[in-house]
Amino acid sequence: MNDLEHLESQSVYILREAYNQLDKLAMLWSIGKDSNVLLWLIRKAFFGRVPFPVVQLDTGMELPEVYAFRDRVAAQWDLDLKIEQCPPESEMDPTLPPATRAAARKTEGLKNLLRTGHYQGIFVGIRRDEQATRAKERVFSPRTLEGAWDVKGQPAEFWDHYKTRFPMGTHVRIHPLLHWTELDIWRYSKAENIPIVPLYFARDGQRYRSLGEKNITFPVQSSASSIDEIIAELETTRTPERAGRSMDNETEDAFERLRSVGYM
Amino acid sequence: MSSELTAAAVAAFHRPLRIVIVGHVDHGKSTLIGRLLNDTDTLPEGKVAAVEEMSRRRGMPFEWSFVLDALQAERDQGITIDTTQIGFRTARRGYVIIDAPGHTEFLKNMVTGAAGAEAAVLVIDAGEGALEQSRRHAYLLHLLGVRQVAVAVNKLDLLGFDERRFEHTKAEIENYLADIGIVPSAVVPIAARHGDNIAGRSANMPWYVGPTIVEALDNFTVPVPDSDQPLRLPIQDVYKPDDRRILAGRVESGRFKVGDTLYFAPGGRSATVVGIEAWNIDTPWTSAVAGQSVGLTLDRRIFVERGDIAYHAETPPDESHLLQLRVFWLTERPLEVGRGYTLKVATAEHRVVVESIDRVIDVDTLTAREAATVARNEVADVVVRSRSLTAIDRAVFLPRTGRGVLLDEFDVVGGAIVLDTRQDKPADIKAGNIHAPTSAVSTGDRVRANGHRGGILWMTGLSGSGKSTLSAALERTLFERGRQVVVLDGDRLRLGINSDLGFSPEDRSENIRRVAEVARLFADTGLIVITALISPTLADRARARAIGGRGFQEIFIKADLTVCEARDPKGLYAKARRGEIADFTGISAPYEAPVDPELVVDTGALTREDALDLLLGYVEENFGINTDWENEGSGV
Question: DSSP 3-state assignment of B85?
């Protein structure tokens, strides 16, 4: 087995554990490169099917290419797509820094989804190497109904035994890509020929390295216009992946605060 | 996977080695990692400036540990609370570094981090030596299966880079590690804060000629999955996407190919692999090796469920109810004799009860002592009895199917490795002084002659629930269908083989044991044995199950006490209510309902005919000649 097959096998194992052990599942689809890989791995695990709903937390602020990609792929892959409209920014905690406040809309959208959909498990395509608080995550990460993350009291998780039992009113975030890196995502996308939103490829000397809403995400300088060129770029770059995400860098603990109340 | 990557690109991406950094709190683990990342040019742009700013704001000199301690509370308190992971590369290969908290309060987080590692660096403060937590971490590494260990003796800058102080600490930790079976690959003197002997050789310690930390890491090897070991494929789930019936699971050790006959433990049913199913692959898979998640289809329909383990005929796992485990305990409420837990091994879950605590191991001195409980952060050898038959390996033989976690209600409360499995027999039988002669007639011969398998239908329930009525009706109907069947009735046995027994708790237990032994003898000769005993306690029925072997089926004849008392076929409830019978189950003695019986027959809700139909259907499905029987002893 090569390293990509190892990564794939581990993710498939996690997906199948969740599917067997939990009742009502959904996957969050941001339509970015990571959640596209996650969607692909789900089809691997369940022999071509996606046996639960795929949810987009929509702020109406995505770029047009993202919406076009969503509609095309959802139809092609026969997805049970649900679109959850996030509440407006005016309803967010005013003490948060501006970009963090904009990002908090997705947290609230997710809470609404959980309240109405009664999901027990939510698949999220985050990775440890993206951001330091995500590096602290468990594969199965229990949350209160309000989505709060008890970062100081996380469950023991070892030898592939995951937290699959919890009292009523709790849900669990499942992170099948936690052990992948940005480079792994691109190499796997290439090896498997997974569809990708074209915004990741450079046009006029710029590309999106991490794809978020247009008001709080910015393209980075790059000439990488193919996956091979992106892979070559990543092997030498010292720029962090989320450098174009305003909310990560507003204050020392902005992202931790966001995540501890339920952000992905 | 249709890999079009160039050969060079593939070569550059060997799987990274996962290393964990462990040791006592404040001995400098996070500092070592921060320095390692910096000195290997791994940190992203802006990270050092951000750490500088965090340190300045707290009025501290530059604090390397802030590179990893991502949580506000960690930085404010200056300790690592939870485990984290970060990648870096040397000229030789890629690594994932796992930082594990050293504080005793967060041992479960240390275990969470360290269990995923393939090698470890144990960091020890040269001034303080191998304190308790260093020793505990070293001991746990061993239990967790981390075999490659290097030691970093830190803070030599505070001791004037004194060689003698280093040699003293080195000897101390080497002695301890030798006692637990670890030979460190290197013991490196370092000053993590200043980068001495991390990536580059220290000018301050010219007396040291061994490897730097980076060289020590590069000398580790990346373990390959055990594809040459016996096959173990624990079943995760069964999917029916279309007309296929796909068994899903991950190969934990060994390999198999299409055309192989696989056996499934516990029980030993067998079938042949006709296909390995996968989506979006160029050419169909014809074989699979350790580490792969697969789906497979079989040539015939046999009963297989989550938790079963597929293996090859010549290398079966052990099957046992009694397990000797070495446990490490992670939770406030201590482990106690008599308490029940759920043991998860691979994908199987078993309800177990702690029968004894053989010894608690003091990880500091490595001495053993007797104890009635196992407290948080302690290591102990215990014996547990499982309700269900476990298919399991000894950890020294096959670690991935020889270890697991213990759960109490919702939470993982401990880890366990299997030291040994025990058969439930007296000492002189275990010692091999008594040998059961093999029968001249094999089980297979009997099944072919009878047209069905033997086994035990152990009916349990309150007096008046319908055990005797149903067992008589079932016996008659099965007999008329040509089945070899017998009822062992509690009252009838008490007139003969059990006539020396009364109704004390001890005698009732012995009564049940004897019935189970007799039932087993009959079942082994191919009979369908129906027992009808109240058998009120979980413990007695667990023992009966252990005696009964593979063919034992617990049938809960269920009816509410009020219903049974209203029926009162023998007038016993009335007597018990008048106080004429002591310890009467349901009135003055408890009935412990089965937790997970093979079948529940609710005679409060079903008519007698429907209850009988349910039982008949169950027998035909589980004792029929059509199910696979050739490769096992008696029963299912």
Answer: strand
Give the phi and the psi of residue B461 in degrees, each rounded to 5.
165, 170
Decide if domain B318-428 falls under CATH 2.40.30.10.
yes
Separation of CA B34 from chain center: 35
> In DSSP terms, which residues pair with A83 in a beta bridge?
A56
Residue B191 has a CB neighbour count (10 Å cut-off) of 24
Owner of token pair 């951001």: A131
Q: Would you state the structure tokens that stand for residue B634, as one six-digit string?
A: 């008696």
Q: Give the pLDDT confidence score for residue A22 in this predicted structure.
A: 94
- Taking only residues 4 to 33 of chain B, the set having a beta carbon closer than 8 angstroms to any beta carbon of chain A reads 4-5, 9-10, 13-16
What are residue B521's phi and psi, to 5 degrees?
-60, -45
Q: Does any CB of chain B come closer than 8 Å to the CB of residue A193?
A: yes
Q: What is the DSSP string of B523-536?
A: HHTT-EEEEE----
Cα-based torsion angle of the residue sequence A227, A230, A232, A237 in order, rounded to the nearest 10 degrees: -160
Structure tokens at B93: 């290969």
Contact between B2 and A191 using a beta-carbon 8 Å cutoff: yes
CATH numeric code, B14-218: 3.40.50.300
CATH 2.40.30.10 in chain B, residues? Answer: 226-311, 318-428
CATH no. for B443-630? 3.40.50.300
User: Known catalytic residue: B465?
Assistant: no
Q: Is the C-alpha dihedral spanning B389, B390, B391, B396 positive or negative?
A: negative
pTM of the complete model: 0.77
Nearest CA-CA partner of B394 in B403, B386, B404, B402:
B402
A111-170 pLDDT, tens digit each: 899 889 989 999 999 999 888 888 889 999 998 867 788 888 899 999 999 999 888 778
Q: What's the average model confidence in pLDDT over B344-360?
A: 95
Using DSSP's 3-state secondary structure scheme, residue A110 falls into helix
Mark yes or no for CB contact B44/A238 under 8 Å. yes
* Averaged pLDDT, groups of 10, chain A, 264 residues long: 93 98 95 97 96 96 95 96 94 87 89 90 94 90 83 91 87 95 96 96 94 88 95 87 79 81 84
pLDDT surpasses 90 at B539 = no
Q: Which residue has the tokens 């462990």?
A: B22
Would you tell me the crossing angle of helices B505-524 and B538-548 to the nearest 10 degrees? 20
What does the pLDDT look like over B286-334, one tens digit per residue?
A: 999 999 999 999 999 898 999 999 999 999 999 999 999 999 999 999 9
CATH class of B226-311: mainly beta
Please tell me which of the candidates B5, B236, B344 has its beta carbon nearest to residue A187. B5
Distance of CA B317 to the CA centre of its chain: 13
Percentage, residues of chain A above pLDDT 90: 65
Which one from B30, B202, B386, B535 is the annotated catalytic residue?
B535
Give B8's pLDDT tier (boundaries 50, 70, 90): very low
DSSP for residue A247: G
In Å, what is the CA distance from B457 to each residue of B350, B351, B498? 21, 21, 20
- B227 vs A: CB within 8 A: no
Sequential DSSP letters for B516-580:
HHHHHHHHHTT-EEEEE-----HHHHHHHHHHHGGGEEEEEEE--HHHHHHH-TTSHHHHHHTT-
How far B153 CA sits from the closest chain A CA (Å)? 27
Structure tokens at B241: 């996407």
Provide the total of helices (H) and of strands (E) in chain B, helices listed first. Answer: 17, 28
Q: List the 112-131 stretch of A: residues with Cβ below 8 A of B.
A: 128-129
CB pairs under 8 A between A and B: 166
In chain B, CATH 3.40.50.300 covers 14-218, 443-630
Whole-angstrom distance between the N-terminal and C-terminal Cα of chain B? 40
**Cα(A199)–Cα(A178) distance, integer angstroms:** 24
